[in-house]
Amino acid sequence: MIVHYSTLIFPCDENSLNMTPMQGVLKGVRVLDMTRILAGPFATMIFGDMGADVIKIESPQGGDDTRFWGPPFIGTESVYFMSVNRNKRSVAINMKQPQGLEILHRLVKKSDIFVENFLPGKLDAMGMGYKELKKLNKGLVYCSISGFGPDGPLADRAGYDVIASSMGGLVNITGPQNGNPCKVGVAVTDITTGLLAHGAILAALRQKELTGVGDKIDCDLLSSQVAMLTHVAANYLNSNIEASRLGTAHPNIVPYQAFKTKDGLFLTIGGGNNKQFKFLCNVIGCQSLGENPKFLNNEDRLANREELIAALSKKLEEKTRVEWLNLLEGSGIPYGPINNMKETFSNPQVLHNNMIMEMEHPGINQTIRVPGTPVKYSNKESNSNSNPPPMLGQHTREVLKELADCNDADIDRLVNEKVVLE
């Protein structure tokens, strides 16, 4: 199913760029979002999906860098930006000007959460560090997302997903066995850091409810990536086993990888335990492999990986992918096709899970489609909101009047003096 939200958007009149009322488990929580690119915006988008009022603070000189990351563009808007910035209000403020800083301080006083991803120390120097802001709002939960942490030998370096995933070991273990290291197709280090930040903020928000006092949270890409190594790291730390590239294969389980089929398409199959492996051999018609002493136990299969994978690969090239899928259906064996984007978004389960979200974007007068939220609540009113990603400065006047004690004349003056953009 594709969830279409056009009925939730006001018609294109003077109110056409306003957000629809928010609902959800975090309704009433306000997030001041001073992040750009991916890790921070992904975290704050989840807050917006859950009903929080997310105010995205952007520079009047172009805003979030990803607004220009394209093609593809839809109208004037970057598809990349639109993928992680729904359910937010955009306010464009020049924080280098004293009046801009004063407006931000007013917004801080009325916010629950503050998220930023500037270089460590930069906001402190501008009067927007935690020590300064907690004087204005002792209950503020302040989260900093950086590349390498707030201090230490690499703290001053800018953080980028591919650099952190390289230095944190992921790129080294990704790619074909005898090939070069590869970047993962999606910026998983950024996204994981955003998820960890989101969880940490919620925990601090709970603590604030109990004590009335906020907290300072630090998340960084490198630490997130190292934590993600889990069993691969444990193999090294406890057994001194250096990780290597295995393509789609698993370092501790055999078979557990992709196989090429007769028509050149790929299928991923796992034999997670001895029973599954023997059943797999029976299903695909090579019972002798399941009875071979060299493959009876996972330890044996690891020791004889190359011989077993060669035999399975030869067998699986006898039929097309769809033929194998039909044979494996209902078997209880872990399996699935390697899908491209078209196949992914036409998958019946993906459609059933409402993982395509359509929204009318009145700012560009077009329909946009983005991945839906993967989290569902039994209480329907708690489920995801659906406001399209904002235009730069789209909500400046609205937010300043609502939260910064500004009237129209004040805002007109601020616009003329290039303190804000609307």
Describe the overall structure.
This protein is 37% helix and 16% strand. The model is unreliable at 5-16 (pLDDT under 50). Helix 1 packs across helix 7 (188-211) and helix 7 packs across helix 8. The chain starts with a strand and ends with a strand. By secondary structure, it is of the alpha/beta class. The longest helix is centred in the middle third of the chain and has 24 residues, at 188-211. It has helices spanning 39-49, 79-83, 98-109, 122-125, 130-136, 161-167, 188-211, 221-228, 230-239, 274-284, 287-291, 298-303, 305-316, 321-328, 341-344, 348-352, 396-403, 408-416; strands at 2-4, 30-34, 53-58, 73-74, 77-78, 89-93, 113-116, 141-146, 215-220, 256-260, 266-270, 335-337, 356-361, 366-371, 420-421. The protein contains 18 helices and 15 strands. The protein has a seven-stranded mixed sheet, sandwiched between helices. A three-stranded mixed sheet has the order 1-13-14.
